[in-house]
Amino acid sequence: MFIWGVAMLAIENLSLKYGQSQILNGITLQAPLGQVTCVTGTNGVGKTSLMKAIAGRHPFSAGSVTLDGKALPSGRAAVAAKAGVGYVPQGREIFPLMTVEENLETGFACLPKADRTIPDDIFDLFPVLAEMRTRRGGDLSGGQQQQLSIARALIARPKVLLLDEPTEGIQPNIIQMIGRTIQVLRDRGNLAIILVEQNFEFAYLNSDHFHIMQRGEVVQSLPKAEAKREALLDALAL
Length: 238
Description:
238 residues
């Protein structure tokens, strides 16, 4: 097993099924504080299923997910969120008829009443959201919705942030901004980040180590210093 830094999230021998189909088979990996852990591989290898298992969106059939030393129950999204799992799903899943501010406030559900405020640094990270806080989520561009989705996850003060394809369908200037935001969050040192990303240059630039998946299994784990670009490109089929 590869361990870098203090492991905030630990996954041990995780397996997951959809009906009779085995999707994940014995996944083991760790996500340390203050680092970006990239999970990569071609489409259909189980990356999004892994994110859903960690976030409690889909029950796992075997293994364990441990956050900050405490085991998370299988298939309990509310419990995972309150424990400190921040999930930014593929496709963003913002509420289109609610305002930007109302979308952000949905993150309050995980917090005690005394902490139900939008931190100032949310608008420092995403200035466009301050400008559009009274606009409906559905009126935002794709890049603005992605910023809203990340900000909403951060409202709950997570211990681990799951980012599933954050650059998908996003214009280049917003991709660069999201990359800078990830670096700021990483450098604070109090958050573990797991990144699922098909954009090779983005993933390579912003990740500290890589777990390469094939057919529902992690077949290789290595720090960036040992990651050969050619091997990663092959894993992404680019």
